[in-house]
Amino acid sequence: MTTPDESVHARLDRLRRDRGLLTPAELLDLAEHGVAVLDPFSVIVSRRVEIGPDNVLHPGVVIECDERSRCVLGPGNVLYGGTRIAAADGGSITVGARSLIGDGGTRILAGAHESITVGDGVRLMDGAEVLGDSLLGHGSQILGRISARSVELGAGLPYTHPDPDGRGGVLKGLGRASGVLVGTGEVLGEGDDLSHYEPGRQRLYHPEAPRLGPGPTLERLTAEHAGRVLAFEQDNRGFFADSVPDRGDEYFTPDGFADRHRALLAEQAEGRCHFHVVLNSYGQIVGRVNLVDVADGSAELGYRVAEADTGQGVGRAAVEQVLRLAAGDYGLNSLTAVSSPDNQASRALLARTGFTEAGERSVDGKKVIAYHRAL
Questions:
Q1: 179: in domain
Q2: Which of 75, 34, 41, 70 is nearest to 58 (CA)?
Q3: What is the CATH number of the domain that holds 31?
Q4: Counting CB atoms within 10 angstroms of each CB, which of 1, 26, 97, 239 has the fewest?
């Protein structure tokens, strides 16, 4: 004759087995593989779930996977109470290693033929929800009550890394995000519907953070740069408008920008200009430096640096590199440049890179200071 406690346990085991779930005893047995289930009576795990070693499952965690679906949990993850991971009707969910999921509740739900991949070192907190076909790259984060459907967050270093330019992409705040792409070192967290906004640089929120990668590099402008250049210009439009004339609303529309970008590439192909993007050590566009109106061995220098990267030596490093290209690859023997009288940062950069003042002139009705440099 069984005791009342044994009868309850037996019934609980039968209920779980009938639904394809691990029993409390089987959950405890996962400790043999390094999996810590802190309360096996409140944790629900499907038998079809593949669980790697060294995971920690706090009370109230639910991981469901039907017979048509796949759910894989890599090693070393921590799942906090309130986490629900569910793959149904042919869905697929793969979680990498050493991620923190669910502090404050998190749902990761894949339906018919949907695939969700969560990389290593990801953090999903405070009510985050992930749906649809989504890719959360290494080191990425969703922080807050955001319903993210079919999103892609760029892979990067963990959120603890001191250089924000190298961290994974971040969604934060509350509301909805559908079909958005947030690159490495970027953050999106403004408004109830994040799909209507453009990501910004994480460095803007951490201006004093160190830069741990090598200095910036130049790439000659190509058609493949178009999307990233437009994002760079959109992110910094207000900042640039404080020192140079704004490009106008048409420039920032997809069609208007595409036309302008094609025109620049055509000028470059004819040898009338040399355009470059400035990349940081993580491949992000942080500036532009160009040589325009090439004629008789001379050209005019123009450059701009992202707001988040001013005062960090990015502009000087980029100008010094383009000076070497101008004298070597492009066969030029002199450069000119202009700066407004009150743009002290630009004037100081030109002086530090060997330009000398060559008098005043008028551009679009405004007085500027002209500069010259022999190569």
A1: yes
A2: 41
A3: 2.160.10
A4: 1
**Pair (295, 159) in one structural domain:** no
- pTM over cut 0.90: no
Q: How many degrees, rounded to 5, is the angle at CA 229 between CA 226 and CA 231?
A: 110
Domain of 221: which CATH number?
A: 3.40.630.30
The tokens of 269 are what?
């192909």
What is the rounded CA–CA span in Å between residue 240 and residue 246?
7
Find residue 88's DSSP bridge partners. none
* Beta carbons of 96 and 72 less than 8 angstroms apart: no
Tens-digit pLDDT string for the chain (375 aa): 445 555 777 888 899 899 999 999 999 999 988 999 999 999 999 999 999 999 999 999 999 999 999 999 999 999 999 999 999 999 999 999 999 999 888 999 999 999 999 999 999 999 999 999 999 999 999 999 999 999 999 999 999 999 999 999 999 999 999 999 999 999 998 777 888 888 999 999 998 898 887 779 999 999 999 989 998 999 899 999 888 888 899 999 989 999 999 999 999 999 999 999 999 988 889 999 999 999 999 999 999 999 988 888 899 999 999 999 999 999 999 999 999 898 888 999 999 999 999 998 887 778 899 999 999
Residue with tokens 């509740």: 105
- Measure the CA–CA gap between 133 and 91, rounded to whole angstroms: 9
Residues 170 and 273 in one domain: no
DSSP 93: E
- Residue 263's φ and ψ, nearest 5 degrees, are -65, -40
CA proximity to 77, closest of 59, 94, 52, 60: 52
Residues 198 and 328: their CA atoms lie apart, in Å, by: 38
Q: What is the spatial distance between Cα 86 and Cα 106, in angstroms, rounded to a whole number?
A: 11
Angle between helices 344-352 and 314-327 (to 10 degrees): 40
Task: Give the pair of three-digit tokens for residue 314.
Answer: 């990015």
Residue 33, φ and ψ in degrees, nearest 5: -105, 15
Q: Are residues 52 and 194 in the same domain?
A: yes
Single out the residue in 205, 240, 259 at which a domain terminates. Answer: 205
What is the DSSP code (8-state) at residue 40?
A: T
Whether 269 contacts 262, CB under 8 Å: no
Cα-Cα-Cα-Cα dihedral sign, residues 98, 99, 104, 106: negative
